[in-house]
Amino acid sequence: MLNPVIRKLENFTHLSEDDRQALDKAAGQVRAYRPREDIISEGDRPEAVKLLIEGWGCRYKQLQDGRRQIMAYFVPGDMCDINVFILRQMDHSIATLSPATVATIPRDIILDLMAQHPRITQALWWSTLVDEATLREWVVNVGQRSAYERTAHLLCELFFRLRAVGLTNGNSCILPVTQSELGDTLGLSVVHVNRTLQDLRRDRLLELKGKHLSILDLNALQQAALFNSNYLHLEHEGDGLNANQRER
User: Given 4, 162, 168, 189, which is the most exposed site by the fewest CB atoms within 10 A?
Assistant: First the structure.
């Protein structure tokens, strides 16, 4: 059931069979959510870690007048904050963007997992650092890149993240995000998002039909976005922690 998170963590290191079994047993309650439904809301008391097994989610902050800023996307294999249960209450909300299956990992299970499995702990630290690096890149996106560059950059990032967990088909993937949600992510109006996507299509960089994204020229899209995937750290940087090598 937890294959996506295992695939994600193994972008950093090679887990042992014992590590994989421990991860697979970690999930407690599993629940199906509708699209655009809060998994946990601002003000709630977090008492467990939420793990996305299927579907898409996001982290967002909403102002009193209804304006919203999306600050992260979650794809299968992502944990919605590993140490979130330390907080007294949530200072932001986490919601689905599509039909989703979410596992709840109790606090005690997470703490035991990290105490008993050092390779999993290292990989979870890595995952947290990648989340922080991604947020920094999003700040640069909104603050410095043009609408054309920031839209291309976000699509490159999502494609690389989906490919890392086996959810792409060639240069295509499912993108269940509306233009309004892209606007809430990129700091653009819906009209501006629509115009920018048309420009990317015109330049033969991508096709976006409904929820299906096809990247026609990945190298050119990366150049247009000023995109460097180094902040995602997908190069098996933890080869020195290779469990299989240790067990031989």
Answer: 189
Give the three-state DSSP class for 90: coil
pLDDT in tens, 49-65: 899 999 999 999 999 99
Euclidean distance between CA atoms 102 and 60, whole angstroms: 17
222 in the Ramachandran plot: left (φ > 0), alpha (ψ -120 to 50) or beta? Answer: alpha
Beta bridge partners, 173, equal 213
Using DSSP, state whether 219 is helix, strand or coil.
helix
Residues 6+ apart with CB under 8 A from 145: 153, 225, 226
pTM of the model: 0.90
Q: Biggest alpha carbon distance in the chain? A: 60
DSSP secondary structure letters along 123-182: HHHHHHHHHHHHHHHHHHHHHHS-HHHHHHHHHHHHHHHHHHTT--BTTEEE----HHHH
**Dist CA 102 CA 99 (whole Å):** 10
| Distances, alpha carbon 174 to alpha carbons 73, 159, 208, in Å | 14, 9, 10
**pLDDT per position as a tens digit, 19-43:** 998 988 887 789 999 999 999 999 9
Distance from first CA to last CA of the chain, Å, rounded?
27
Contacts of 76 (CB under 8 A, 6+ apart): 4, 52, 53, 54, 55, 165, 167
8-state DSSP, 227: -
Beta pairing class for 30-33 and 38-40: unpaired
Cα dist from 116 to 3, 78, 119, 124, 240, whole Å: 20, 21, 9, 13, 19
100, 55 Cβ separation under 8 angstroms? yes
